Amino acid sequence: MRRHIVATALALAYGAGAPLCAHAAGDQDLAQLRAEIQQMKQDYEARLSALQRRLDQVQAQQVSTATPPAAAPAATPANAPMAAPAATPVATTPAAANVFNPKIALILGGTYANLSQDPNQYRLQGFLPGGDEVGPGKRGLNLGESELTMSANIDPQFAGQLTFSLQPDDTVSVEEAFFQTIGLSNGLNLKAGRFLSSVGYLNSQHAHAWDFVDAPLVYQAFFGGQYKPDGAQVTWLAPTDRYWEVGAEAGDGSSFPGNQRNRNGVGSFALFTHLGDDIGASASWLAGLSWLHSGASDRSYTDLDHTGTAVTDAFSGHNDTLILDGVYKWAPNGNATWTNFKLQGEYFRQRNSGTLAYDTAAQSLGSASGSYAAAQSGWYLQGVYQFRPMWRVGLRYDKLYSGTPDIGLVGSGLGSADFPRLAGYDPSRSTIMLDYSPSEFSRFRIQFARDRSRPEATDNQIYLQYIMSLGTHGAHTF
Amino acid sequence: MKKLFLATAGLIAALTALPSLARVNVLSCEPEWAALATEIGGDKVNVTSATTAQQDPHHIQARPSLIARTRNADMLVCTGLELEVGWLPILLQQSGNPKLEPGQPGYLEAGRLVPRLEVPTRVDRSEGDVHADGNPHIQTDPRNIALVAAALEKRLAGIDPANAAYYEQRYRDFSTRWSAAIQKWERQAAPLKGVAIVEHHKNLEYLMNWLGMHSVGTLEPKPGVEPSAAHLSELVAQLQRQPARMVVRAAYQDERASQWLAAHAHIPAVVVPFTVGGDDKADNLFSLFDDTVQRLLAGLQ
Predict the structure, then answer these.
(1) Which of A27, A117, A418, B288 fits as disulfide partner to A459, beta carbons 3.0 to 4.6 Å?
(2) B22-118+125-184 with B190-300: one CATH topology?
């Protein structure tokens, strides 16, 4: 500082004196002096910024090693050895512009599928078709779904999350986009936006957390994959020692088994409850009961009538889905690092009632409409065993019961041969998988399935899959 | 719809009007903090630990029972420093318990109270499961426990002011006994100064820092990556140039890798309890360090 003052004083003195001794001091001297002052100035600035940096570092260290208040009565005379343990904390000063950025997590996935039957012919015989996510996917090498999740606390009351799903066909969709409350009170939680519904067990888990490449058949048949409404959810956790959660959801009902209906009000409604606890130190369980009510209006699909013409049929009406789910997890002493086991099963029962319209575009025998009622069910049971670190093996069995749908048009001019997709059948599938996870963040899987979802063919499906997690360390639900 | 809403609201009101319990419910993430809360809270607190000494605190399932316990807790004591990053956020989110939100007096992150070791200058997953805020296994240095005890006493007194004097008295008593015990352990552990060991995971850094020991390698090739045969063979070769006196693992870690190394490098394999409940002797904080020091000394024989 002193040097700077001297330099400034000199400069001032020189400046002030300049007119007086203008003749004495030549231009050369002037330039030299200027250069010297410039040099001193630069020198000083460098020192100042170095000092500032050191000050910042010291401050950051103090923050990162915040010691308890000095008032703590810890400093009794006998406490000599308690003097701060030697450590060399490193200052971490995140750039100010970045600290409020959301946490980012990225999932990369890819599969290779070898399917013995043409996936374009795939159908779940006996069930009203729903959505693009049904079926074994494309043959050959595929880029799987990539997922980009951003999440952060919004303010002391709310947190938000956005998950993009990037499909291999270069389309982007919003998988989830919601805000939820943080520590509201009394075990209450509110959520609104688009989210994976909490009905059932697997429904609320992202595909990358599944234990198999594909969704159980019950999810494909009754939810067209996963059920994610645009809406709001309230859950309440009871103040009991045993875990008991109840919740309700109101949604737009635009996703299967509902569809877009152009009407005001709530399009779908769900109630669910989950109960869970430990069994000793090694095991724990979670069980749930859920009900979803939704509606559809002219939800169309294509079928071949008895003349062999492709016709568009459509279902209008409402449906109720009941789900029973249960999960049991075991690990010796609750330490899942070496071995662990997970048993999981869900039972679905769905009633559809309303009207079924035949050939809505009048391309074959002319449009007609009649009643439709079906009560269909299904279940799956799967077990996954980690037999040594990094390696897991899993078995799954899927079963669906289509029953015989009650179609009003059958017998009144049309026959059941005009609705071949709805002819009764009980699809089933057996799956075995082996996966290897070099770390928490990477996983490779091989899966083989025998899929008997239609009577005329058995599809032998072989999958190879990779799942990679980048970015923020995710926390997984039970 | 309205009826249902009213019914739900009524039910919630009825159930949340339950009288508050007299004791402070403390949930700890790791057993050492449960033991410490018991030392200071005495019979004025109900303490449970989310994990046991047989479990790896990095890998815990967000079990339903833990969510229920988080829901009913008045105070949460956790190591923090990303140790519980894979499960604690779920418990906090699902519990809907405003007392335990970060920043509230009910949320005590012990790791922030102590000088930290191994704060990485470079955070990259190619280095394994690194913790950006430093090595989180702070409880293996008893001086850190003393620092956390001071903060815990203040928090308890804040949450339950009626018993503030009780907590302070218990804290003073604990603190005096703890200081004496530290001096005793330091005397006993004098022969361990300068001793080189092999660790399973980098989870004994604070213990080594305290007793003047050092590590010449880990069974895990990278933090959080399970030991591999190739890495263990390399380690045996390395130990011929740079010998270690023993291979040390925590009670929750699988014995196979350390026994393999013990047999091939001809050094003893030592298990330390690592936290309260890690073995039969370590049933409180004092016996935890008594036993740890004795087991390490036995490894020198």
Answers:
(1) A117
(2) yes
Q: What digits encode the pLDDT tens for the residues B267-294? A: 999 999 999 999 999 999 999 999 999 9
Q: How far is B262 from chain A (nearest CA, A)?
A: 20
Could you tell me where the DSSP H helices lie in B108-228?
142-159, 164-188, 205-211
> What is the residue extent of each domain of chain B?
22-118+125-184, 190-300
B contacts of A248 (beta carbons < 8 Å): 4, 8
Domain B190-300, architecture per CATH: 3-Layer(aba) Sandwich (3.40)
Q: Is the pLDDT of residue B30 over 90?
A: yes
Say whether pTM exceeds 0.80: yes
User: Is B118 at the interface with chain A, CB within 8 A?
Assistant: no
pLDDT digits (tens, 9 = 90+) for B149-194: 999 999 999 999 999 999 999 999 999 999 999 999 999 999 999 9
A12 half-sphere exposure, CB direction, 13 A CA radius: 6
Domain B22-118+125-184 fold is Rossmann fold (3.40.50)
Q: Assign domain A103-471 to a CATH class.
A: mainly beta
Interchain proximity B61–A284, CB inside 8 Å: yes
Ranges of beta strands (E only) in A103-238 are 103-115, 140-143, 146-153, 158-166, 172-181, 188-194, 230-237
* Alpha-carbon gap: B254 to the closest alpha carbon of chain A (Å): 7
Average model confidence (pLDDT) across chain B: 91
CB contact under 8 A, A475 and B252: no
Enter the ipTM: 0.86
Q: Output the CA angle B170-B171-B175, nearest 5 degrees.
A: 120
